[in-house]
Amino acid sequence: MLVVQPARPRTSSQGRIGLAIAGGGPTGGMYELGALRALDRAIEGLDLTRLDVYVGVSSGAFLAAGLANRIDTAAMCRVFLTGDSDIRFHPELFLRPAIGEYLRRAGSAPGLVLRWAREALADPLSASFGELVSRLGGVIPNGLFDNAGIELFLRKLFTADGRSNDFRELDRPLYVVAVDLDSGKAVRFGSRDWDDVPISRAVQASSALPGLYPPVCIRDRHFVDGALRRTMHASTALDRGIDLLLGINPFVPFNASRGGKRPAGMKRLAEGGLPVVLSQTFRTLLQSRVQVGLEKYARQYPETDQLVMEPDEDDGEMFFTSVFSYGNRLKVCEYAFHATLKDLRERRAELGPLFARHGLRLRDEVLDAHGLSILDGIAAEPPRTEATARLRRSLDDLEAQLAAESARTPRGTPAARGAARRSSRRRRPSAS
């Protein structure tokens, strides 16, 4: 499902494009990858690795940080889907028990009980079993799983092949949003006061969903999932003065009344038990904030075209897929890939002029093709060294600069200049 908010009034475009990607757990991240791959294939002139600003929250921060580091969607598919990459992704990274957290919390239990016993002996009338139970709440771990392995994987990914784990060394602005647990306020890693934090550490903090992962300590402050404040934090990109916002929100509530696919025998969502009820509640809250945000953005940023991709509300494929199911990640990616192409195809009459305003064009040959797969054109990476990777990136930079200079002619419109800047890399293999 595409949510389109055209700019009003229709002003000239400089071709500045921003990307905001919401969270959604591992499965949401795979949906987002499929949608991004579809945009990559279907829109001529769009280079997702050379946008003007990137914003990522939780699982969306993985993808935003990768694109800002010039890891294109083909390379991401090799990393997360096929395994044809020098740096291997292991799904069990997300499910390693937080043994250290368990032991540390359990070790504090005797001290808590002893202090309560001493206070009870000193003042028996004020002591209560309920108070003891309350104090023992500190023994419960902050998270079930350890996310340290996630940070290590990202650190390796962002320090190989000429990439960078430093916000300040990126070509384009990247913002990774997390929430300060003690204040409840959102923090934008990558902004001036927080750009010294390693990108891998920022993504770890942004994806620390309370209950599943422990808060991440940075500068003696604890951070958790950025979606607690907002779903996409799209205003972070809109504040940069972009002309076109591309957003992805993988979590929408399931509308059972429309007869979408569901598990056999389930007539009402309540029959699915607490996990299904919580999932529907969580998704409803997230999407309602997206809707409220988009309404506000239409008023605050009337000169920006806004395009947000979401699953359809009768989409049981996404709703009933566990957020921690990895065995079907290719299936989820393929579904999102085809669903996004279908949305673009069905609304091409509306979207064609909108994209053209920014120097972009829908590829009819892709939209009308049959039998496409997300893995088409994704070959194994050729062997390379750090030196050759840096050389390829430098050649890409030079080619992009020459294309931008060529577009700065009296005949070149602002949108054409933006298109040239983003399309220059199409003639060269990925530098990821």
Which helices and strands, and how do they pair?
Layout: E1 2-5, E2 17-21, H1 25-42, E3 43-44, E4 53-57, H2 59-68, H3 73-82, H4 99-107, H5 109-122, H6 129-135, H7 148-158, E5 174-180, E6 186-189, H8 199-206, E7 216-218, E8 221-225, H9 235-238, E9 244-248, H10 273-300, E10 305-309, H11 316-319, H12 329-346, H13 348-356, E11 361-362, H14 364-367, H15 386-407, H16 414-423
Major sheet description: 9 strands, mixed
N-end to C-end Cα span: 30 Å
- How much helix, percentage-wise, in residues? 40-55%
Overall structural class, as computed from helix and strand content, comes to: alpha/beta
Give start-end ranges of low-pLDDT stretches: 423-432
What would the principal axes of the Cα set say about the shape? globular
- Average pLDDT: 82
Strand runs, count:
11
The ordered string of helix (H) and strand (E) elements is EEHEEHHHHHHEEHEEHEHEHHHEHHH
Proportion of beta-strand residues: 5-15%
Oligomer: single chain
Radius of gyration: 23 Å
Q: Count the DSSP helices.
A: 16
